[in-house]
């Protein structure tokens, strides 16, 4: 299916512009993104025991991810501000060294929420890093990606 000419990030002069979605019908849009933070086993043990120097790493990262999703349009140029109806951010400890992060975002609107889900995971991962960097500067944020989306004209997507 070809892209409609009006759904482009370029204006008539070729300059960057926000896509005009005013003619698109609002539908239920859902996106899920995932990522992970890999750390030293000793750092993981601090998080698991609730003994990180800055407090409840997982709780703060969960809240930061939710707040990040709500501010996506302020962070990503040309991204539409959306009224989100649901944002969940789940952080799971996977021994011996990984915090897995998954965000689910929903809206009923004319454009999708993939960017909001990706932002939620990214902000949660950055918060984990920030709260633990004194203990482990070698942490890695990895594999942030959309794993599922539904709604809209482009159809559903499920990552392999």
TrEMBL record:
Catalytic-site annotation from UniProt: 130
Pathway: Cofactor biosynthesis; molybdopterin biosynthesis
Protein's GO biological process: Mo-molybdopterin cofactor biosynthetic process
Domain Molybdopterin cofactor biosynthesis C (MoaC): 18-152
Keywords assigned: Lyase, Molybdenum cofactor biosynthesis
InterPro entries: MoaC (IPR023045), MoaC_bact/euk (IPR047594), MoaC_sf (IPR036522), MoCo_biosynth_MoaA/MoaC (IPR050105), Mopterin_CF_biosynth-C_dom (IPR002820)
Enzyme Commission number(s) from the entry: 4.6.1.17
Catalysed transformations (reactions): (8S)-3',8-cyclo-7,8-dihydroguanosine 5'-triphosphate = cyclic pyranopterin phosphate + diphosphate
Ligand binding (substrate): 78-80, 115-116
GO molecular function, one term: cyclic pyranopterin monophosphate synthase activity
Protein's job: Catalyzes the conversion of (8S)-3',8-cyclo-7,8-dihydroguanosine 5'-triphosphate to cyclic pyranopterin monophosphate (cPMP).
Subunit description: Homohexamer; trimer of dimers.
Family: Belongs to the MoaC family.
PANTHER family noted in UniProt: MOLYBDOPTERIN COFACTOR SYNTHESIS PROTEIN A
Protein name as annotated: Cyclic pyranopterin monophosphate synthase
Organism of derivation: Humitalea rosea
